[in-house]
Amino acid sequence: MAKQERALRTRHAILSSAARIFEERGYQAATVSEILASAGVTKGALYFHFPSKEHLAEGVLHAQDLGAPIPERPSKVQQMVDTVFLHAHRLQTDPMVRAGVRLSLDQQAQGLDRSGPFLRWSEVGTELLDKAKAQGELLPHVTSQETADVLVGSFAGIQAMSQALCNYQDLPPRVAALLRHILPSVVVPSVLASIDLTATRGATVYTELQTLHPDLQPPTPEPTPHPA
Fold it and tell me: For residue 119, is pLDDT > 60?
């Protein structure tokens, strides 16, 4: 068990270091030697967990999916809104999530499949919108996948703008504004009136998840060297 825990700590140290370097330098400029030096592990330990830089990047991309799921809400529109706000909160507070988003938008990342996060978020949105439509929360003309794709693409643009202007400091109000503009075109007015779109919603949901899941992994700290 101790050996397994040590391996998990080593893997986490490598991913944390990779996340920081990918976020700072982008995929193309980042080097495995930099990640090795930052993580403080041997080359053998790194390649045991991640055979290549591409595998490292894929590990960072997938790490943003590891959070606890939003609790079921009576309103599926609210559940979708909470999912969006929570991701915005994690972008502000978790370097691993920020690095994953940076990689997914990095058009210079040649050879790296960046489609995964977009496809997964679209799938999550489509599923919630299908459920919302089934219980009469959406306007008749709405196509779930089309709306989910619009939300995913719009969020990507909003977060990129927030990152460029102020390093995500204003992301929650920007996300609230995005939802206030999009939702009236897809949600039944009586349902929309009950939806919580306050900019602090993401922090509120994260606190709720911490209460429900005491073992919820906190935001990834800045990496420190760790022995292999």
Answer: yes
